[in-house]
Specification:
The chain is of the alpha+beta class and 514 residues long. The protein has three domains: 263 residues, Bira Bifunctional Protein, Domain 2 (BirA Bifunctional Protein, domain 2), CATH 3.30.930; 110 residues, Herpes Virus-1, CATH 3.30.40; 102 residues, Rossmann fold.
Length: 514
């Protein structure tokens, strides 16, 4: 575990050092669980968003995108259930005076057992070498089976207690498992209480006439209230989807793990409207489709897994998460939820307006069912960034730090380096920058020896370094160096656009989904 903690610390410091993520208002000692995306971070975030949007909206004839406002009429949140039921179970430690999410304490306890399973697998792998059969070992080893049974019964009991709002049993479970305060080791807990996560604010010029509003805790409701507007103006027939990306806000009790759980974050959501009764096949379709999107980035199949929800929201008939292996273990990256007709029916009830679809084939009106895919953009950023940060041993015995970002997402696609700052080389290099910047985000770097510049660009995640030297003056060729392999080749300046495009073009990356 210490290894993973060290890796995570490296991720956080690298993100700051290379202009990806800064603590918000850091000069005033920052604000807990609020972060700013720096110059490279803003580009990486935009590229992830574009990659999602192109796959979701542009590549699907029956999905359109909207951008709904953050402020919504307060009755929206009554209808959606957020006013009454958008709660987290919190527990305080009487000795440390620290506040925790009760469910997270229990999940962390299970994660430690999972780490023991990983240890058993690693030991067996060393013992048996090539003859090791991992699936067979997991399904037959008594110790692993015992650990797995403990995880399953613990999570199952917690899910049941939360579903029945039996908070006393959640506390009893924490005590039975002898879960201690992570900071002090104290087991002196208060009762578990519910805590609403919405941020309240006011709309209006004077205090006495102001209307109570909320900052939206999710972007989905902006889609539901616009369902009919979008359907009529785009003349879409069911099944069809509405997608959007945007900010959401949650007053998290325990915001932690860097940008994994923040109070202000960004979501990329798509609500797919379907005929009642077809939800099972659409649920499977979107699970498969979304996993393919993730796998297209080449971040390792073993780093993803599905987790079916034990505890379903009262309106859902199926829900699963795509989990990713972060430095702190497998955690939710994207949710796929079969939401039945709950959302549109609730808004019908509270607004008094019909939110139905006239099906010309059936010749009748009905409230469509909804299949949701919802991914946190910040979590996706962290998944990409943490997975890409690597220390490599080189043949000459030295090590290099390299950020192997999928080149389609890299903030800067190429950096142009004049070998020396004289003899007309900077002028040629700057001309190449001028030419390439119409198509790609490129950079210019002339400081330090060329080897040090290569290392700096490796750590920054830049896929290509293009070096202009004295031979360039004679034959208009440059050296192009590939970040991942460190291979260098001599190419004509006129070929640069084609080489960079071949490696970074969204089309070739997204083709893997087809």
């Amino acid at each position: 575990m210490a290894n993973n903690d060290d890796q995570f610390k490296k991720v956080i410091s690298h993100a700051k050092e290379y202009g990806y993520v800064f603590q918000s208002s850091e000069i005033y000692d920052g604000l807990s669980a609020v972060y700013d995306y720096a110059q490279n971070g803003a580009e990486l975030k935009k590229n992830i968003r574009d990659y999602w949007w192109k796959a979701m909206v542009q590549m699907n004839d029956n999905i359109v995108g909207i951008d709904a406002a953050i402020f919504m009429h307060p009755t929206t949140w009554k209808a959606s259930g957020h006013v009454d039921a958008f709660n987290d179970p919190l527990i305080d430690n009487k000795d440390s005076k620290k506040r925790y999410r009760a469910d997270v304490l229990i999940e962390d306890y299970c994660a430690k057992i999972e780490a023991k399973i990983e240890k058993e697998i690693a030991k067996a792998q060393t013992r048996f070498g090539n003859a090791f059969n991992k699936p067979e070992f997991i399904s037959t080893n008594p110790r692993v089976l015992g650990y797995q049974e403990k995880i399953n019964t613990t999570l199952s009991r917690m899910a049941k207690s939360l579903e029945n709002e039996d908070l006393a049993d959640v506390k009893a479970l924490i005590e039975e498992l002898e879960i201690a305060d992570p900071l002090t080791g104290s087991k002196n807990w208060t009762d578990v209480k519910q805590f609403n996560l919405m941020f309240g604010t006011k709309l209006g010029a004077s205090a006495e006439n102001a209307m109570d509003l909320y900052l939206r805790p999710e972007t989905a409701q902006g889609i539901f209230v616009n369902f009919l507007n979008v359907q009529k103006t785009s003349r879409l027939k069911i099944p069809f989807g509405i997608a959007q990306t945007g900010k959401a806000f949650r007053n998290e009790i325990v915001a932690r793990q860097f940008i994994f759980r923040m109070r202000e974050f960004e979501q990329m959501e798509m609500q797919f409207f379907i005929k009642p009764g077809t939800q099972k096949q659409w649920y499977e379709h979107w699970k498969e489709t979304r996993l393919k999107w993730h796998l297209s980035l080449g971040m390792g199949n073993d780093n993803y897994r599905f987790h079916d929800h034990e505890k379903l929201a009262h309106y859902a008939d199926a829900a699963a998460d795509i989990e990713f292996k972060f430095p702190f273990g497998f955690k939710e990256l994207e949710g796929i939820h079969s939401r039945t007709d709950f959302d549109l029916s609730q808004h019908e009830k509270y607004s008094g307006k019909k939110l139905q679809y006239f099906d010309p084939e059936e010749n009748k009106n009905y409230v469509p069912y909804v299949l949701e895919t919802s991914i946190g953009l910040d979590r996706m950023f962290l998944a990409v960034f943490s997975n890409s940060l690597q220390e490599e041993e080189l043949e000459n015995g030295t090590t290099r730090t390299v950020l192997k970002l999928p080149s389609v997402l890299a903030p800067i696609k190429a950096t142009i380096l004049p070998l020396v700052k004289k003899d007309g080389l900077p002028e040629i290099a700057k001309q190449i920058v001028e030419d390439l910047k119409w198509d790609f985000n490129v950079d210019y770097d002339e400081k330090d020896a060329v080897g040090r510049r290569y290392r700096r660009q490796d750590a920054n995640g830049t896929p290509f370094c293009i070096t202009v030297d004295h031979d360039t003056l004679k034959d208009n060729t440059v050296t192009i160096r590939h970040r991942d392999s460190m291979q260098q080749e001599r190419v004509a300046i006129t070929r640069l656009r084609e080489i960079i495009k071949h490696d970074t073009d969204m089309r070739s990356w997204l083709m893997k989904i087809k």
